[in-house]
Amino acid sequence: MEKPLSSMFSFYIAVFSLLLSPIAAQTKSSITIGESLTATKNSKSWVSPLGDFAFGFHLYSNTSNLFLLAIWYAKIPETVVWYANGGNPIAEKSTVTLTADVGLVLNDPKGIHLWNTSSEWNGTFVVSRGLMDDSGNFILRSKDDKSVWQSFDHPTDTLLPSQTMTKGGVLDSRLSESNYTKGRFQLRLQYDGNMVLNTWDVPSGFQYPPYYATGTYESPNQGFQLRYNESGHMYLLAKNGTVLNDLIPADKIALPGDSYLRATLNFYGVFTWYFHPKTFTKNNDVGWSKIYSIPDNMNICDRSVKDGESGVCGFNNICTYDDNNNMPRCQCPSHYSLLNPDDEYGHCKPDFELEYCDEEQSSAQKGGYELIPLQSTDWPFDDYQQHAGYSERDCKSSCLEDCFCAAVIFNSANVGGSDPSCYKKKLPLSNGKQDNSVSRTAWLKVRNGTNSTDQLISIVKNKVNPEIVVILGGSVFFNFCLLTALVLGIFFIYNKKGNIKLKNVEDYNNVLCFSYKALEEATNGFSEELGRGAFGVVYKGQITAGNFSNHVAVKKLNLVTEDIDKEFRTEMNVIGKTHHKNLVHLVGFCKEEDQRLLVYEYMSNGTLADYLFGDSRPHWSERVQISLGIAGGLQYLHEECSTQIIHCDIKPQNILLDEYQNARIGDFGLAKLLVLNQTHTNTAIRGTKGYVAPEWFRNKPVTVKVDVYSFGVILLEIICCRKNVCMELLEEEGAILTDWVFDCYQTNSLESLVKEDEEALDDMLRLKRFVMVGLWCIQEDPSLRPKMRMVVQMLEGLADVPVPPCPSFAVSKT
User: Fold this and answer.
1) What's the half-sphere exposure (Cβ side, CA atoms, 13 Å) at 433?
2) What does the alpha-carbon distance between residue 602 and residue 76 come to, in Å, rounded to a whole number?
3) CB atoms within 10 A of CB 286
4) Contact 412/379 with Cβ under 8 angstroms?
5) Region(s) of the chain under CATH 2.90.10.10
6) Checking phi first, is residue 251 left (phi over 0); if not, alpha (psi -120 to 50) or beta?
7) Where in the chain is the domain with CATH 1.10.510.10?
8) Where would I find the H helices in 613-684?
C-alpha cells in the first residue's frame, strides 16, 4: 500500500534531522581501512553506535591548540577515560589513520610518526576494521573477525564496566588534573596476585612499597584477575573462579536509575568509583558522584613507608590531607621548589646552595644559615642524631652548628625527660606531613637571604626587583628617585666587592658579563682544577653578591687563537639560546683582551665518566634515569630549539651530574647550528674516538644522527658500566663493547652484560629494550638510526622497538 504524501514528507524530515545531529553524523558501527581523523577544533570523531563514547582528538585545554588522542564520554566530553601516546599533547593538524598492517597510526603535522598499535601482534595479523564499542572499548579486528588489539587491554587511569585486568596490569595516574602524562601513583595487580596502590619514580620506573594492598597473594587464594562487571561490582577473582575480595561494599552499589560508571585512579593517588545519570540536560547536570574509594576516608599522608623512601609526596615535600575532598595535597616548604614544576606531588629541591660538609669536619658556616619554623610538621624518618632533654634553643643551635643538618624536629613534651626531644635530619627529607594532630614543630634550615642562580641573574640584569617599587607606592617622583638610588647602590656595592661587573650584553643573550679580576678572585687564583680538555681548563669558583653565594665552574680557554675564539663564540651562541633541565646552565662569561672564560653552574657530582667507571657499580635505577635525561636533552637540542643544534661531541666526560644525579649535557665547543630547512652540514672530523659516527670518516654530510650514534655508545656503556674499548680485553671477544653487546643480544645472553647486578637482572624487559635501542642508535647507516624523539619514546616503553640488525653489517644508503 502506498504511503500518504504527508507521511512520506514526515519520514524524510525525520531522516534529515537525524543526519544533522552531531552524534548521528559521526556514529558508525565500523571504521574501514584508510579512514582518518585530523586534529582541529570541532573536528569529527568516531562515536559508538548508541552514542555513549567517542574516539578522536580531544582538545587538551580551551586555551591551547593542542590535542589528545583519546576516548571520552560523547555526552560528557570533559571526562576522558583513555588516551594514547603516553598522554602527551599533539599539535593541531596531526592525524590518526587506520591501516591494515599496524592498525592505528598517529602522525604529527609534518608526518613524523608518534604512536601506533602494532606492537601487540608483531605484524602477524592484518587489520580489517575498527570499532568504537558502546562499552568504551576501541577494538581492532582481523579479517576472520578476531580481536587484534583493544584499548581495554591497555588502560591508562580508568577502568570501565566489563573491563578486566590480568596479572601485571597497571593503571597510572595523570600528572595533574589537566596533564595526562604519567603521574606519581599506580594501581597494580602484581604477579603474586596482590592488588596494590603505590608511588613510583617515573623516570627510572622504580616502584616504592604500597600504601594500600588487598593481601590476596597467598596460594590458592591468589588474585588472578581484577574484574569490573556491568552492575558496578569490582572484585578480585582466583584462578578457580572464587571471588577473593569484593572491593566495593554491597551497600554502595545501589544507584539511581540508568547511570554511567567508571573507576579512576586520580592524580592524587586515590582509586575512586563514580556514577553519572545517563539522562540529564546542561541545566540539571549534577556531575559525577562518588560511590566509594580506596583508601576510603583515610589520611594517605599517614601511610608512611620505610626509611629512605619518599612517601606519598616526593622527597622534601610536605603532605597535607584535604578532608573535604578525601585527597592529599603536597606543597614544598618555604625556600624549596618543585624539581618538576608540573608535578605537585613530586620532589622538592632547595632554592639555595647547600653547605659543603667535609667528611672530617661537620661544623657549619657561622651566620650563613637560619632556621624557619613549620608548625605541626614532621618528617618521621631521616634521623641521624637524637638528643634527650634538649631545650628548643639547644635543639636549634645544634642544627645550626652542624652542616649535615637540614631540619630539626623539636618535641617539647620530652624536655627534661629521658626520651629524645630533638631529632636532627639530613636531606633528602621523606614522608613529610603537616597535620593538626602533629604536636611537634619542625625547623627547616635555609640560607640567609636565599637566592637561586636564576634570581642572581635577574637581580643583575634588572638591577632591582620591580615588586619593591610597587610596594613603595606614593609619589611617582619619589619612586623614581628611590629607584635610582637603589640601582646606583647595588651597582657600587657589587663593583666594590669585585665579584661582578654589571653589564648587559645583548649579543650574548643577556648572560652575565664578569671581569677577569672577579673570576680570578672567585676561583682563588684558579687554584682548584675540576678538569681539562683540548681547549682549556675548568676551575671551581664561588660567586658572591650581597647575601647570595653559589659555586660555579669556570672554564678558562687556552691562549686565544682563531680556533679558541671560535670555540668561545660557539658556546656563547649555543648555550645562551638553550634552557632545559638536562643541559648545563651558562651563568656568564668574560671577554677581556686575550682572555676568554665561560662560567657555568657547578655540578656537584662530577662527570658521567667518573660516576660510571669508578670502583663501584651505580644503581640500575639511577643509570636508567641518567639515560632518559641524556636522551631528553638531545631531543631538546635536535627538535625543540628554535635553531637545531648538533652537539658533535657527546661522551661521558661531557655529561655532568647535579646534586640529584640528573644528567646535564655540557661542553658545546664543537656544536653546529643548523638554520631553518637545513638538515646537514659539511665539516672536518670532530668529536672523540670511540663515540664518533662512521660518516665523519667518509666525507659525508653530518646530521643530528651523529649525536644519536654517540648516544647509542653511551647508552651501552651505561648499561654495562664499562668503557667502549677496554685495552685489557684486546685478546678477548669483549674488547669492543658494541660488538660484544650485539653478540650477547643475538645469543640471548643479556645477563652477561650486567653480571651480579641484581637490580638490572630483575628488570630484564627494560634491559632488553635499552640494549635494542642502543643497537639501533649505532647503526652504520645514519638513515637507520632513529630520531631522538623516537629514542625517548622507545626507552620509555611508549613505542615498539623492532629487532635491530647487526650495526656493522648495515648497508650505507647515504
Assistant:
1) 20
2) 50
3) 8
4) no
5) 26-182+241-294
6) alpha
7) 609-809
8) 620-635
Decide if domain 26-182+241-294 falls under CATH 2.90.10.10: yes
Q: Identify each DSSP E strand in 295-411 by its residue range.
A: 318-322, 327-331, 336-338, 348-350, 369-375, 377-378, 383-388, 407-410
Bridge partner residues of 182 (DSSP): 174
C-alpha cell at 374: 613549620
How far, rounded to the nearest angstrom, does the alpha carbon of residue 118 sit from its chain's CA centroid?
Answer: 25
CB-based contact 675:643 (threshold 8 Å): yes
> Are the C-beta atoms of residues 151 and 115 closer than 8 Å to each other?
no
Who's near 436: CB < 8 A, 6+ residues apart? 376
What pLDDT does residue 391 have? Answer: 87
Cα separation, 664 vs 1, in Å, equals: 82
Reference 202, options 187, 182, 178, 188; nearest CA is 182
Q: Is the omega angle on the peptide bond into residue 220 within 30 degrees of 0, that is, cis?
A: yes
DSSP state of 512: E
Check if the beta carbon of residue 424 is closer than 8 Å to that of residue 384. Answer: yes
The Cα–Cα gap between 256 and 277 comes to 8
**How far apart are alpha carbons 514 and 47 in whole angstroms?**
62
Against a cut of 0.90, is the pTM above it?
A: no
- Tell whether omega for the bond before 804 is within 30 degrees of 0, i.e. cis: no
**Residue in the block written with cell 651523529:** 706
pLDDT average, residue stretch 367-372: 85
Residues designated catalytic = 649
**Are residues 150 and 137 in contact, defined by beta-carbon separation less than 8 angstroms?**
yes
Beta strands in 60-126 (DSSP E): 66-73, 76-83, 90-91, 95-99, 103-107, 113-116
Element (DSSP H or E) covering residue 214: none
- Greatest CA span in the chain, whole angstroms? 107
Task: Tell me how long the chain is.
Answer: 814
Q: Beta partners for 586?
A: 600
Q: Return the closest-CA partner of residue 634 out of 642, 644, 624, 625.
A: 644
Torsion of CA 306, 312, 315, 316, to 10 degrees: -110
Neighbour tally for 476: CB within 10 Å: 7
Answer for the pair 104, 97: CB distance below 8 angstroms, yes or no: yes
> How many angstroms separate the CA atoms of 567 and 671, rounded?
9
Phi-psi region of 205 (alpha: psi -120 to 50; beta: other; left: phi over 0): left
Going by the DSSP 8-state scheme, the letter that residue 798 receives in this structure is S
Give residue 51's region: left, alpha or beta (phi > 0; psi -120 to 50).
Answer: left
Q: What confidence score (pLDDT) does residue 514 get?
A: 86
Query: What distance in Å separates the CA atoms of residue 533 and residue 527, rounded to the nearest whole number?
Result: 17
Task: Report how far apart the first and last C-alpha atoms of the chain are (Å, whole number).
Answer: 74
**pLDDT tens, position by position, 738-754:** 989 999 998 899 999 99
pLDDT digits (tens, 9 = 90+) for 202-259: 766 777 788 888 888 876 778 789 999 988 889 998 888 888 888 888 777 766 678 9
DSSP-assigned letter for residue 152: G
Pick the CATH number of 453-601 from 3.30.420.10, 3.40.640.10, 3.30.360.10, 3.30.200.20: 3.30.200.20
Q: How far is CA 66 from the centre of its chain?
A: 19
Calpha distance 503→459 (Å, rounded):
12
Cross-strand pairs, 90? 67
Buried b (16+ CB within 10 A) or exposed e, 229-242: eeebbbbbbbeeee
8 A C-beta contact, residue 113 and residue 790: yes
DSSP code of 78? Answer: E
What class has domain 609-809?
A: mainly alpha
Residue 726 carries which DSSP code? -
Question: Which single residue is written with the C-alpha cell 568509583?
Answer: 273
Tell me: the pLDDT tens digits for 567-583? 666 656 666 667 788 88
